[in-house]
Specification:
With 110 residues, the protein is mostly helical. Helices cover 65% and strands 0% of the residues.
Length: 110
């Protein structure tokens, strides 16, 4: 949704499909929907819902969503008041997820 392509897109319809996928706990869809809501792509800008979608994605260990929430709470963005505790929480969760990903063995042949 947020990437440029050479073909026309129905951004409102894409946003609807992202919402359906996010409702099924699809973390990448929740991340993309959060971005669309944050920037008003395919519909109205809605930072509160964007934060909700980022939380949904981050709760499933989506690294970009965890990083976005960390920054939002550190800087007081997206309508959220600065909150060092929440910024630290998402920063720590991001570090733990990265460490776990490094320990995960890759299947043979990759």
């Amino acid at each position: 949704l947020m990437r440029n392509t050479d073909r026309p897109q129905d951004l409102a319809e894409a946003r609807d499909w992202l919402r359906k996928a996010a409702a099924q706990s699809h973390a990448p869809a929740a991340w993309e929907l959060g971005r669309a809501l944050e920037f008003g792509v395919g519909g109205e800008l809605d930072r509160k819902d964007a934060v909700d979608q980022y939380r949904l994605a981050a709760s499933q260990d989506h690294p970009a969503a965890m990083q976005r929430l960390q920054r939002a709470y550190r800087e007081g963005e997206l309508g959220e008041a600065p909150n060092a505790s929440l910024a630290n929480f998402w920063g720590l969760k991001l570090k733990l997820a990265a460490a776990a990903a490094k320990k995960t063995p890759t299947p043979a042949g990759r």
